[in-house]
């Protein structure tokens, strides 16, 4: 095995090792979930070297620098507020979802116009339009932390894998018998999970384009899914009012979470995977954690997004400005930018065309 490079993962704290074995490029992670600003770096590095043969004496200084950077990030306070930065009109037909890359330098939008668009966050400039689906592009995601690929899921029952740099389509994943409405990459960027109105979730191999497994057990549409940070578990939320936790290697359902009185709209692990947060049509809302796990963002039919403190449950800020239901929202990886999206109608001459409003909010320093 030959170590090629390190990738730093701030949340949850860890170091990704990219290495070559048998001519193939692979990755594995050193998870540092117990790291704090007070952790003794020398003792930690010594423990890492005992368990990880890729960390040789020549790499110790690099690893120490990475650990110090993680400690500095963990020590930062999180008490700033957000303000409106930019509003964009992205598509002529309704948007379906929004997502950031890891750095927040670009974001993507899916739409009823059958396309996915890549945007520059700072300028609002459109970078690429990904075309090829034959129906609504509903589910979208970057393969963070790498950010070089995009997956799109469509009402045409397929999922496509794209190059961020060129806009080229690598694979088209076929196998679902109904609309794909959610998807996610695993942290290693080796698998894509798709959830469908056919009540199943499927796992796909990114390199070969082949189906790996089908997860069956829900009795209604799967509307949301999320990998844990290790990539060995997947959580799915369904219109059957339940949430299921799956073992990825075996495809076995581990737990079924029951408690909501309405359809599940969103599910997500927190940063250390000790919690799962769920949103529902039972007067809950669409939700997402920030990468640090300290804040929850909720998007609602009341035309607002709200920022919540995880520990206290207190609402820290109400983000207003949209004129209709907010159906999609996301943090960037650093947690200092939020994107929200909604549809609204503009009266035209003899018609009422759909427009879509994207709003970007930045943190005040």
Automatic annotation (TrEMBL):
Protein name: Dynein assembly factor with WDR repeat domains 1
UniProt source species: Oncorhynchus mykiss (Rainbow trout)
Residues annotated as domain WDR36/Utp21 N-terminal: 104-286
InterPro entries: WD40/YVTN_repeat-like_dom_sf (IPR015943), WD40_PAC1 (IPR020472), WD40_repeat_CS (IPR019775), WD40_repeat_dom_sf (IPR036322), WD40_rpt (IPR001680), WDR36-Utp21_N (IPR059157)
Pfam families: Beta-prop_WDR36-Utp21_1st (PF25171), WD40 (PF00400)
Domain of life: Eukaryota
WD repeats mapped onto the chain: 88-129, 130-172, 173-214, 215-256, 277-318
CC per GO annotation: transferase complex
Keyword vocabulary terms for this entry: Repeat, WD repeat
């Amino acid at each position: 095995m030959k170590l090629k490079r390190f990738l730093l993962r701030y949340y949850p704290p860890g170091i990704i090792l990219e290495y070559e074995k048998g001519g193939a490029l692979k990755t594995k992670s050193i998870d540092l979930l117990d790291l704090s600003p007070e952790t003794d770096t020398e003792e930690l590095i010594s423990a890492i070297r005992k368990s990880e043969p890729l960390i040789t004496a020549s790499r110790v200084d690099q690893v120490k620098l990475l650990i110090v950077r993680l400690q500095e990030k963990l020590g930062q306070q999180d008490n700033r507020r957000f303000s409106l930065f930019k509003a964009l009109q992205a598509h002529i037909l309704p948007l379906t979802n929004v997502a950031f890359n890891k750095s927040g330098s670009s974001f993507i939008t899916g739409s009823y116009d059958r396309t996915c668009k890549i945007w520059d966050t700072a300028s609002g400039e459109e970078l690429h339009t990904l075309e090829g689906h034959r129906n609504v592009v509903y589910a979208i995601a970057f393969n963070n932390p790498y950010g070089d690929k995009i997956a799109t899921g469509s009402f045409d029952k397929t999922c496509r894998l794209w190059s961020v740099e060129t806009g080229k389509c690598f694979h088209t994943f076929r196998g679902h018998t109904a609309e794909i409405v959610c998807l996610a990459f695993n942290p290693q960027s080796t698998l894509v999970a798709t959830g469908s109105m056919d009540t199943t979730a499927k796992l796909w191999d990114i390199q070969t384009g082949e189906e790996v497994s089908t997860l069956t057990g829900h009795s209604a549409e799967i509307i949301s899914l999320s990998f844990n940070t290790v990539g060995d578990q997947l959580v799915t939320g369904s219109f059957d009012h339940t949430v299921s936790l799956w073992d990825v290697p075996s495809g076995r359902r581990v737990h079924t979470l029951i408690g909501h009185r309405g359809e599940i709209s969103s599910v997500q692990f927190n940063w250390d995977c000790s919690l799962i947060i769920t949103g529902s049509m039972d007067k809950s809302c669409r939700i997402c954690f920030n990468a640090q796990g300290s804040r929850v963002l909720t998007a609602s039919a009341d035309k607002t997004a709200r920022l919540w403190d995880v520990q206290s449950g207190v609402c820290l800020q109400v983000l207003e400005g949209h004129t209709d239901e907010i159906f999609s929202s996301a943090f960037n990886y650093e947690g200092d930018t939020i994107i929200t999206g909604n549809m609204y109608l503009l009266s035209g001459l003899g018609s009422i065309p759909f427009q879509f409003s994207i709003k970007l909010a930045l943190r005040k320093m």
